[in-house]
Specification:
About 55% of the residues lie in helices and about 10% in strands. Strands 2-1-3-4 form a four-stranded mixed sheet. The protein has a single domain, classed as Glutaredoxin, CATH 3.40.30.10. By secondary structure, the protein is an alpha+beta fold. The protein contains nine helices and four strands. The mean pLDDT is about 95.
C-alpha cells in the first residue's frame, strides 16, 4: 500500500488549512500516512527559512492576505493574527506524538483540534490546561497522554522525525512526500491527488 510522509507543525496555519483536505484525500485513496510533527526551529536554519517576525515586511503583509484568502476559500474562520502566535509548538507536537504511540487512532483529529484552538479559538496551545481540555473533549485520557508526552520516548520520536525531515529535504510546513516527490504547502494538495491517481490507475 502507498504511504505518504506528512511533515507538519501545530503552530503552522498552512498545516491547519490543509489538514482536513489532506485527510479526505487519504481516505478516498485508502493510503497510509506517517504524520510527523517536527521541529522547524531546527529545520529553518539549515534551509534558509526564517521565523515570520524576521521576514521582510512585504512578505509578512502578503502572508496575512493569503491566510485570509485561503480561510475564506476553505470556509474556515481562521484568525490570521492570533493572540498566541507564534507558538513554540513543542508540547502540542509531543501530545500528538504521544497519541500516535499510544495508538488512540485519533491523532489526526487531535492535531486538527489543537490547530483549531490556536487559529480559530484564539487559545494558547503551549498551555497545558488548553491541551488537557482538548484531550478531555475527545474522551482521551488527558493525564496519561500528557505525562507520556513528556517522556524521553516521545522526545526521541520527535527528534527522529525532525532528522528524517532534514534528510528528505523538507524545509516548510506542511510537506507531503509521495515516493520521491516532495509537495510543499497545502496549495499543492491537488498535485498530491493527481499523483495518487496516477499510481492507482487500474
Amino acid at each position: 500500500m502507498i504511504t505518504i510522509e506528512y511533515f507538519m507543525s501545530p503552530g503552522s496555519p498552512w498545516s491547519f488549512l490543509g489538514h482536513k483536505h489532506f485527510i479526505e484525500i487519504v481516505n478516498r485513496f485508502n493510503v497510509n500516512v506517517n504524520m510527523y510533527p517536527v521541529n522547524y526551529g531546527e529545520i529553518f536554519p539549515l534551509s534558509g527559512g526564517v521565523p515570520v517576525s524576521k521576514r521582510p515586511i512585504q512578505r509578512q503583509s502578503i502572508r496575512l492576505q493569503e491566510l485570509k484568502r485561503w480561510g475564506d476559500f476553505l470556509k474556515i474562520s481562521l484568525n490570521p493574527e492570533p493572540k498566541f502566535f507564534p507558538s513554540k509548538s513543542l508540547l502540542p507536537s509531543l501530545i500528538i506524538i504521544a497519541s500516535q504511540l499510544k495508538k488512540t487512532n485519533q491523532a489526526f483529529d487531535l492535531a486538527n483540534n489543537i490547530m483549531s484552538a490556536l487559529w480559530v479559538e484564539n487559545l494558547n496551545i503551549d498551555d497545558e490546561d488548553t491541551l488537557i481540555n482538548i484531550l478531555k473533549k475527545m474522551d482521551l485520557d488527558a493525564d496519561e497522554i500528557l505525562n507520556y508526552a513528556k517522556t524521553k520516548e516521545c522526545e526521541d520520536a520527535m527528534k527522529s522525525g525532525t532528522r528524517l525531515a532534514i534528510e528528505k529535504g523538507v524545509f516548510g510546513a506542511p510537506t507531503y512526500i509521495v515516493n520521491d516527490q516532495i509537495y510543499w504547502g497545502q496549495d499543492r494538495l491537488d498535485f498530491v491527488e493527481r499523483h495518487l491517481s496516477s499510481l492507482l490507475k487500474p
